[in-house]
Amino acid sequence: MNVLVNALSGIGDALMFSPSLKLLHDKLPNYHIDMMVMFKSVSELYRHSPYIRNIYFIDFLNQPKAKSIRQLLELRKNDYFISINVYPSNRSEYNAVNRVIGAKKRLGHEYLNSGIFRLEFLNNITVKEEKNIHNVVQNTNLIHKIADFRDEETGPMEVFLNEDDENAGILWLQRNGIDIKKPIVGFHCGSSVLKNHINKRWAKEKYAELGKRLGEEYGAQILLFGSETDLNEEVRTMLGGKALLASTPNYMDSMARLKQCRLFVSNDTAFLHSSAAFSIPTVAIFGYTNYRELYPWKTKSEIVRHDLDCSPCFFNSPKPASCKWKGDDEFKCIRKITVEEVFEACKRLLS
Question: What angle (nearest 5°) sits at the alpha carbon of residue 305, between those of residues 303 and 306?
């Protein structure tokens, strides 16, 4: 029988489904698992996964709706018995897509911040979203509906690199004069700008100051990750050119280079979860999103945040992030975090 995993959100959300994907593969050995994605990077992320038979890319965001519908109807011909909306999928479009696929068992969540117009009733097997549990567990709660396993069997997140990818990452470091005997520290200074998430970002000036201190005290070599090229160039300039831009349009290039890091420092982004998937000690800088749901899964980590009465205030819904405070206090949850706080977290992990 056939299973379709609808991983239609971004890389981070897709990656946090990876422990559930392994459970599906192990506990339903007679099923064939396919995946549908709408971002090329997610397709690259799962390209070498031993658990997936086929990956189908549908460019919902950029192509005519008629073409997307034709592709969905073609996919429907695969006669899926089970289809699963990866958490979080709190949009009516995701539930409509799940229904069009036509699987007998259609799995999805009932969200705390939702309503009838999100079309959750189109899924016929659901679990309730729970507050303050990790997204990985939100997914495994759903998988419990179709597979029998113990919670302790939930493993780490996984990114699969083939030998060519991994060798290319090591060669890139060598060509750029990186000394593997000294600490390699990765930064992701950016974030998505969708839903106003540019406000997840810790200040670029603070990242630059952190990089200087890590270089001075530990001889750290800084790699800058992410597609935010202009931002990374600014940080690199502030570091006196003593940093390398490590990302390319191919996500797996980034992963092969990221794997060589001894420490990773990131805002709440997909790179934070990618670092955790490689068991890299990770410093996670949180503002208005919920660290209890998004902390680095199953790796050594330090959470740096300010425990404000109003934070976390962002929940899974299509609404953009906003702040009740104005002026200098707007998004103070992340803006007030100091370099010293993050540096001390780095020191604890480096030691």
Answer: 150
